[in-house]
Design goal:
This protein is of the alpha+beta class. It contains 26 helices and 17 strands. A hairpin with a 3-residue loop joins strand 16 and strand 17.
């Protein structure tokens, strides 16, 4: 099977870029080959700390000939038009063109030419050179004597050589003549930088992998991952330990080594007095090592797993010792921060937030904490939390931002606040809220369940959303610098996961309105309000941000529901009929509506409802809204009388069911209209010649529409 094999050897490829680079290489090369008319059967790509590798199999030796057709001028067109056509088509005379007829345009010339295929080697040479020149590295550099030329080659690190070969399985392949100045192209590579730096000749992927394996290079990134985690588990098991697995760290470590050798190091047992996450993060960030747990107790152990890039003559003793020295020093620093930070109560750490700017228009972190605390107090009763406790937790929630430990490791914000709160004897629910108020951070992150945690988490996210929106930081199509989409999703998930009946309408009495009102204390309030409303006079500014934010939350809610399997149409059918935005209520309505639409009654009634609304829409477009009460005395046909009685009964039943939030019963009442609606449309002419009869029948359809609108706007549902 013919194979195009490619290795791009450079000084270094950063670990975080390797997998994406392998995917980009595959996409760019195979896409360009296909565009050139070359089909292929398969592609394999991988990366090491020095190499990008790609093998494309099943390529033909040559691209196929192709036919090109060019439509020309009409027969009898001016000479200059014919000359231009001949030049463009590559013809020497008009006799080489054929004539075709069009019933409307008459006879015209058509040039049909055959474009000869090209050798795959020649196409591949151009494709590889173009791919290298426009490769989408996040960062890149120029090097060597040519680096002064703005048009010189750029790569993530200096590109030292290229293997580019093409040929069938059982023959020596051809070297693809890639033209990249200053970069040698051939069929040789090198092994491990220290263990086997000599030249190695390769033909295709299989012998490349086996040859490099002998030269202490595991080419496949996923195989290096598997080898590291397998060897680490075994080494830990032999010592009565369990590996604390970390997929992100594993990916990074696999990208740092070509020949992974797992070793075990130790640190002082007294360091275990530090919080677990401090130990893990210190060792992970500084040394790219895994931590371990005692297999019997589950407690963190004073052993760590490191991955060397070579086989050392002393079995790695010097490598382990060097890592142990660094880990000891880093943990000593962490212990210093831990001890120093605890000398100051969290409440005093919180006071330092006055010197920390949150946003130029919104003031300090301390001002923000005051807003969050006030909101948490307001929210607490609605979520079943004690207001005083919720306010206290909110006032301490950001205190750890001023500690030495979080200054060193920002990732520990919240986590350290909880540990410091526990260390000074704060109630467990306050300590938990300090850590959990950041959650949920993403669509799959756990949602807090503690009542105080929920109150503070909601207050934090609502203040972020409202205040930053007011400050002009709303998300755009190209970015969301302050994570407001994430904050909105967090609000939605907190409300739904905890079943909170927390109205979100644009109302000064709702939590959104109160969040906006808190901004009035800021010197920048007038300017922000005027910018949002476009009104320098400032009318209605107390809730200026709320309508925008409600719409934004609903948009994110639609996305969240769509990701849960609910169509956007179903959500949009519910929202217009609501008086207040209550997400739990909306979800309950969605469930009932989805179940209803899945039944035969639901589908049939939908068809009848659409027919009714289409008639009404057409008539209202001509004559204005259908107004006035239905006059039962004007009805003459048994079928319309039956429908009127059914609609009247259903309207009362649906209203009562909706009032008690029994949406299944409401849908059942609507389902009972299926028969009368079908019979009505089968036998009754709505647009009767008698104007009074016609108007009354339109009123009957309007009554049907109003009855359904108590539950949903069925016209919003497509299909």
């Amino acid at each position: 099977m013919p194979e195009l094999f490619l290795e791009l050897l450079s000084e270094e490829i950063p670990a975080r870029m390797q997998r994406r680079a392998a995917n980009d290489l595959t996409r760019l090369v195979t896409g360009a080959l296909v565009d050139a008319g070359l089909t292929y059967e398969g592609a394999y790509a991988t990366a090491t700390p020095r190499r990008l590798v790609l093998a494309v199999t099943g390529l033909p030796p040559r691209s196929p000939d192709r036919q090109e057709e060019r439509k020309g001028p009409r027969v009898g067109a001016p000479e200059k038009a014919l000359e231009g056509f001949l030049r463009a088509a590559g013809l020497s005379s008009i006799e080489e063109a054929s004539v075709e007829s069009d019933p409307k345009k008459g006879d015209f010339y058509v040039a049909r030419t055959t474009i000869a295929g090209r050798d795959t080697v020649a196409i591949a040479a151009e494709v590889i050179a173009d791919t290298v020149r426009r490769f989408p590295w996040p960062v890149s550099m120029r090097w060597g004597a040519e680096s002064a030329d703005p048009g010189s080659l750029r790569w993530v690190r200096p590109l030292t050589s290229i293997i580019a070969t093409f040929g069938p399985e059982n023959e020596d392949p051809d070297i693809v003549p890639v033209d990249l100045p200053g970069v040698p192209v051939g069929d040789t590579t090198v092994g491990h930088r220290f263990l086997a730096p000599g030249k190695i000749r390769v033909r295709r992927l299989d012998d490349y992998k086996s040859a490099l394996e002998k030269a202490f290079v595991v080419v496949d990134l996923d195989r290096r991952r598997d080898q590291i985690v397998h060897d680490a588990r075994n080494a830990c098991h032999a010592l009565g330990l369990d590996l604390v697995e970390d997929d992100g760290l594993l990916e990074e470590v696999a990208g740092l080594v070509e020949w992974p050798v797992v070793l075990i190091g130790r640190f002082e047992e007294k360091a275990l007095e530090l919080p677990d996450e401090v130990i893990r993060l210190t060792i992970r960030e500084n040394q790219k090592c895994f931590v371990t747990r005692d297999a019997a107790t589950g407690a963190l152990a004073n052993a760590f797993v490191l991955t060397s890039n070579l086989v050392a003559p002393d079995d790695g003793a010097a490598i382990v010792a060097g890592n142990e020295r660094v880990v000891k020093a880093r943990l000593s620093d962490a212990r210093f921060f831990w001890e120093q930070d605890r000398k100051t109560p969290l409440a005093d750490h919180a006071k330092k937030l006055a010197a920390v700017t949150f946003h130029e228009k919104l003031g300090s972190q301390a001002a923000r904490v005051n807003r969050i605390a006030a909101l948490a107090r307001e929210i607490a009763p609605a979520v079943g939390a004690d207001p005083d406790t919720a306010e206290t937790a909110a006032r301490l929630a950001k205190a750890d931002l001023t500690t030495g430990m979080v200054g060193e490791f920002p990732e520990l914000q919240g986590y350290m606040g909880r540990r410091y709160a526990e260390a000074e004897g704060r109630p467990a629910e306050i300590a938990a809220a300090i850590e959990e108020h950041y959650a949920p951070l993403g669509p799959n992150d756990a949602v807090p369940e503690g009542r105080v945690s929920v109150a503070v988490a909601l207050a934090d996210k609502i203040d972020s959303l409202v205040s930053l929106w007011a400050a002009g930081e709303k998300p755009t199509g190209s970015g969301d610098a302050f994570g407001l989409r994430r904050a909105a999703l967090g609000i939605i998930r907190l409300i739904l996961a905890n079943g909170l009946r927390l109205p979100l309408a644009a109302d000064g009495e709702t939590i959104l309105g109160k969040a906006w009102a808190q901004l009035r204390a800021l010197d920048t309030y007038e300017a922000m309000a005027a910018e949002l409303t476009g009104d320098a006079g400032g009318a209605g500014r107390d809730i200026a941000a709320a309508p925008f934010i409600v719409d934004f939350l609903l948009d994110r809610f639609i996305v969240q529901q769509r990701d849960s399997g609910v169509s956007a149409d179903t959500v949009r059918a519910i929202i217009p009929v609501l008086r207040t935005i209550d997400l739990v209520d909306i979800v309950n309505r969605i469930a009932a509506l989805s179940d209803f639409l899945a039944t035969e009654d639901g589908a049939t009634l939908m068809a009848g409802y659409r027919r009714a609304t289409n008639i009404l829409r057409a008539e209202e477009k001509k004559d204005g809204p259908v107004e006035g009460a239905l006059e039962t005395g004007v009805l003459v046909e048994p079928q319309e009388i039956a429908l009127a009685e059914a609609v009247a009964g259903a309207k009362e039943t649906v209203a009562a069911a909706v009032a008690r939030e029994d949406y299944a019963a409401a849908m059942e009442a609507l389902a009972a209209l299926r028969g009368p609606v079908d019979t009505f449309f089968d036998t009754v002419l709505v647009n009767a010649e008698d104007p009074a009869l016609r108007l009354n029948r339109l009123r009957l359809l309007a009554a049907l529409r109003e009855t359904a609108l108590q539950v949903a706007d069925f016209s919003a549902i497509s299909g």
